[in-house]
Amino acid sequence: MKIAVACMGEEVSMHFGHSEVFRVFEGTKDSFQETKIIHSPGHGKGSLPQLLIKEEVGVLITGGLGEGAMQKLEAGGIEVIRGAEGPPAVAVNEYLLGTLQSRGEACKGHHDHSHDHGTEKQGCHGQGGCR
User: Fold this and answer.
1) pTM for the full model?
2) What structural domains and CATH numbers belong to the chain?
3) Long-range contacts of residues 7-13, Cβ cutoff 8 Å, at least 24 apart
């Protein structure tokens, strides 16, 4: 199974649509490795979900994302885990061990950016989703 982690620098991105890259991991809870880096084409309507669906990703780990993106990913067969933070390999390890659970909720009406994104450390979606 391919697990993609939305990243900003060396951390899980707090905002799926603003991710710089998606780090793709494969393996089991006993042994996994990063197999690919997918560079984001930018925050275009529907482009990121389609990119991950085309790459046959099974799981997306992110800090948070909008409701539309989440629906597109899930419709494409991708399990979405939101509310993650920290280094991507740690998030993947926690997911494979069953200790990383999706938390928070997808942003509604995100296209207008009318809600408070908070600080980069807390993010719009980390620690409880949209506010």
Assistant:
1) 0.81
2) 2-110 (3.30.420.130)
3) 7/88, 10/87, 10/88, 11/85, 11/86, 11/87, 11/88, 12/61, 12/62, 12/63, 12/84, 12/85, 12/86, 12/87, 12/88, 12/91, 13/62, 13/63
